[in-house]
Amino acid sequence: xxxxxxxxxxxxxIFTLPAFVRATRAISAQCGASPGFISGAVLAEGRLVFWTxxxxxxxxxMKAFRDxxxxxxxxxxxxSWCDEASVAHWEGEAATDWDPIYAHMVEHGRLSRxxxxxxxxxxxxxxxxxxxSPEQPISVAKSRK
Length: 145
Fold this sequence. Notes:
- The chain is α+β, with helices and mostly antiparallel strands.
- The protein has helices at about 15-35, 60-65, 70-80, 100-110, 120, and strands spanning about 1-10, 35-45, 50-55, 80-90, 110, 135.
- About 35% of the residues lie in helices and about 30% in strands.
- It has a six-stranded antiparallel sheet with strand order 5-4-1-3-2-6, sandwiched between helices.
- α1 (about 15-35) runs antiparallel to α3 (about 70-80).
């Protein structure tokens, strides 16, 4: 059984975008090199909203990634970078279709703490997903192939 993890992050300001993009690239590289990573992608929805999806061989593999290196170091920044942030996990087939991913977040998403939450964040109200650009796949590192 595959462990799926999804996030939805809305940046508080366009001024945080460069740092967020740098962190996202570094985290994606770490993700692809992590043991147990199966597949994943980043999606820019527009309106400063970004989604991630990742599939893992186990919850332990996902937690080892989450709690190490670049990802762990970037997480405290989300409180000030974002005014909306949420996460969801579940077991099943590797999720790749964004419509069911969105529906899963709406139904099962957990809010993360942010310093300046929007009313939508506080009420756990997600705007309908609008795909601004194609997803950017996270590649498995060549050293793992």
